[in-house]
From TrEMBL:
SUPFAM superfamilies: P-loop containing nucleoside triphosphate hydrolases. The keyword Transferase applies. This is Sulfotransferase. GO terms for molecular function: sulfotransferase activity. Its EC number is 2.8.2.-. Residues 59-318 form the Sulfotransferase domain. Keywords: Transferase. It holds the Pfam family Sulfotransfer_1. It comes from Paspalum notatum var. saurae. Belongs to the sulfotransferase 1 family. The keyword Thylakoid does not apply.
């Protein structure tokens, strides 16, 4: 239809009326408040188009996260788990040895923002894709018409103070003037990328409690402690549990090893090129320390206290603790 051929233009007026702000030192990244969340201006029309035109399939798998919470790792683990019958983790020609993990699957809002959403429709099932959108914006992704289960969503959540540190390290690769205290302020105000972070996390947390077959809620810190357990959980969630033979053959261990920070960060496709060419963010910046508690090396006690009290305030009735 004429509408779906012009999915971005039909939202131009709406986008121009949104409240916006620019992060100090990051002038090329303008954020707009769309339906209660601060997203890049270039994603606003894309998100509206996605809300209208994305057609979930029952066997779709969506990896979702706030930026800097372990997206790349979860993408790699999920991809390696789903393709393991065709590409066992030890295969010399494994896509993860040739490509950056983000090149192994489509980024949903990125496709809609660049008018390539047709690519999603053309993908064979089961599709694997990722998004940074809050679930509140794409509720139809997990509920099929008639009330049944829609896509399967795997969400990764990270300790917010570590997310703050990781966010700053990442963006300062392209924007050296970005101040850490500004990142903390923006996160606390809820106006950082994809924020408020508490609403983003809670949307997925509540959906995973209400529909555990639709949303798997993973924690970055738990994955660090026992990645093999995380891989088994996600395989079961996808309806692709590891067989006894696969366990004996060390497939789980192989996936964990292939997707480890050490292995991935040493690979050629992850040492060169850009994640976002326009912003000159190098792929190398996706792999840093990969630890829990790095906030202790960066935050003043006041900053940590401020973030902790926001977290306590927003989460105390939810059953989610950090
Ligand atoms: P740090 O900056 O704290 O080191 P995202 O992929 O969402 O952008 O998240 C990036 C964070 O995940 C970075 O955290 C990065 O080091 C970490 N990370 C990337 N690959 C990882 C892996 N294979 N295992 C564990 N952590 C990883």
């Amino acid at each position: 239809s004429a509408v779906s051929e012009r999915p971005l233009e039909e939202h131009a007026d709406m986008v121009s009326s949104l409240p916006c702000h620019t992060i100090t030192g990051v002038s090329s990244l303008k954020l707009c408040c769309y339906q209660g969340f601060w997203i890049p201006e270039s994603w606003a029309a894309a998100t509206a188009a996605m809300q209208r035109h994305f057609e979930p399939r029952l066997d779709d798998v969506i990896v979702s996260s706030l930026p800097k919470c372990g997206t790349t790792w979860l993408v790699a683990l999920t991809f390696a788990t789903m393709v393991r019958r065709v590409y066992p983790p030890g295969a010399a020609d494994h896509p993860l040895r040739r490509l950056n993990p983000h090149q192994c699957l489509p980024f949903m809002e990125g496709l809609f923002a660049t008018r390539r959403q047709g690519k999603l429709e053309g993908l064979p099932s089961p599709r694997l894709m990722n998004t940074h959108m809050p679930l509140q914006m794409i509720p139809h992704a997990i509920a099929a018409p008639g009330g049944g289960r829609g896509c399967r969503v795997i969400y990764i959540c990270r300790e917010p103070k570590d997310m703050a540190v990781s966010t700053w390290h990442y963006f300062r690769r392209a924007f050296p003037e970005l101040a850490f205290s500004d990142v903390v302020d923006l996160l606390c105000d809820g106006t950082m990328l994809c924020g408020p972070f508490w609403d983003h996390i809670l949307g997925y947390w509540r959906a995973s409690a209400a529909s555990p077959g639709s949303v798997l809620f993973l924690r970055y810190e738990q994955l660090l402690l026992d990645p093999a357990d995380g891989v088994r959980r996600l395989a079961r969630f996808l309806g692709l549990p590891f067989s006894a033979d696969e366990e004996t053959d060390g497939i789980v261990r192989g996936i964990v090893e292939l997707c480890s920070l050490r292995t991935l960060s040493a690979m050629e496709p992850n040492r060169t090129g850009y994640v976002v060419p326009r912003l000159k963010l190098p792929r190398q910046a996706l792999f840093r320390k990969g630890m829990a508690g790095d906030w202790k090396n960066h935050m003043t006690p006041e900053m940590a206290c401020r973030m902790d009290s926001i977290v306590a305030d927003r989460f105390h009735t939810t059953g989610l603790t950090f």
